[in-house]
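Changelog note: in this version the structure field was regenerated for every chain. One regenerated record is shown below for reference.
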Amino acid sequence: MVNINNWSEVKKHLHERLLSSEFCNNNFNLLVKVNASADVYRTWYVDLGDKLAPVTYPLLMAWNVSLDDIISAAESNDKGTFSVVNMADVLGIPMCEVPMYIVTNEKGMFGSVGILHPEVQKELNNIFADGYVVLCSSIHEVIVVGGDMNPHDLASMVHSINRSVVNEEDRLSDHVFRIEDSKLSVLV
C-alpha cells in the first residue's frame, strides 16, 4: 500500500490526466489550465491500486515539492505508455479517405493527456506532414485528423458526439485544438 503522505513512495505512482473545466470544481485539486483560452486543465493523481487520489494543494505542501517535481514524476511514469493508432485498425474496417488516429494509453484510462507528450507529437508530425487538429472529446482518448478539414464542422461534430455518445463525466471539450510550440491551443 502506498503511503499518500510520503513523497518518495507517491512519486512512483503519480500520473497526469486532462479534465474538463466542467468537472474541476474542487478548490483543493492541483489544476493547471492548458492555455488561457482552453476549457481543459492538466491535473495529477496517485494510483493507489484500488482507488485514485487526486493531487491537491495540501498534499503538495505536505510533500514539500514543487509543481515541476509533480510534472517531472508524472512524465517519467507515463512516458512510453501512450499509443497512436489508426482508427481503421481499431474498428477493423476501412475508413473514408480522411485518416483518423486515436491517442490514448495502454490502460485506456485518462489517455487524452498523451497529446501533450513530445513522443506522441513527433509521431503525429510524421503521420500528418501537413498538420493536424485534435478533437478532445474524451478524457480517455483524443482523435487526431488532418489539418485540412473545416474546424467549425469538426467542432460541431465533436459537440454532437459529446452529447449523444460520451458520458458526461468523460467529456473533455467541445473545442477543436491544434498543437503550437508543443502546447495544446484552441483552434475553434
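Spot check on this record: The CA atoms of residues 104 and 111 lie 4 Å apart. The chain has a mean pLDDT of 90.
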